[in-house]
Amino acid sequence: MFLSDRVNSVRPSGVRKIFDLANKMKDPINLSIGEPHFDIPLEIKEEGIKWIRAGFNKYTPSGGIPELREKLLHYLKGKDIICDDVILTAGVTGGLLLALMVTLNPGDEVIIPDPYFVLYEYQVMLLGGKPVFIDTYPDFTLKEEALRAVITERTKIILVNSPNNPTGMVYSREELEMVARVAREKNLLVYSDDIYDRFVYDTGFEKAYTGQVYENTLTFGGFSKTWAMTGWRIGYAAGPREIIQCMVTMQQYVFSSINSFAQKAAMRALDYSTDSLIEGTGREGT
Which of 7, 235, 252, 266 is the most exposed place for a label (fewest CB within 10 A)? Predict the structure, then answer.
């Protein structure tokens, strides 16, 4: 047998199995995967096409083009996210993988609220870590007693995802401040997957981010949901400079660099509002 023990421990995603089955059906309604209901806005498409035609089709720096990294830092700090540096990644998936590669040692534990996005568990396992789950049923909220109960001397990271995939739950500021308080007390990292941060529809709900209240947070986001650029595979991770610089080095050996023209299109996207598309009114603009 030529297969590694690592791959033999991984099961195919159930969501992907459903997706494959649906491809054999006529006009199915797709509720299987996180695709926005709208397409990439025309102006952002045209920006990508412009740079393809201009010959911007070669490798870029491993951390991403400097002008986009600088613009993202300004964008995140405008949301009061605490971060020293940022790296462009192959979606949040790529960012999480790089971050785990540079922070996780074999046997280290990562706390993950359950229900959770399926790749969290397997990325941790593939790198020799141990996923540890917090039961958030039945209301899907984060409770301090439950969090403290699963922390051990091997705990390294608390991973939160808000709005949550798959539940849609949006954690309150009080919940995220609790996570930050516990992480600071125990000297833990927090990974905050904020890819769905724009998709909050509750009137008057205050959007909150762990990265606003705790300096040892890695904030993950991207362009797949807010700007519907799922197939262009462009995300980012922001946080402490030492970790981000190590992720840049690691990217040299994992992904090499990120989609060139998509980075240029992302520059345009940051200035482009998709609020009306997300809210369902069907209009778009700057």
Answer: 7
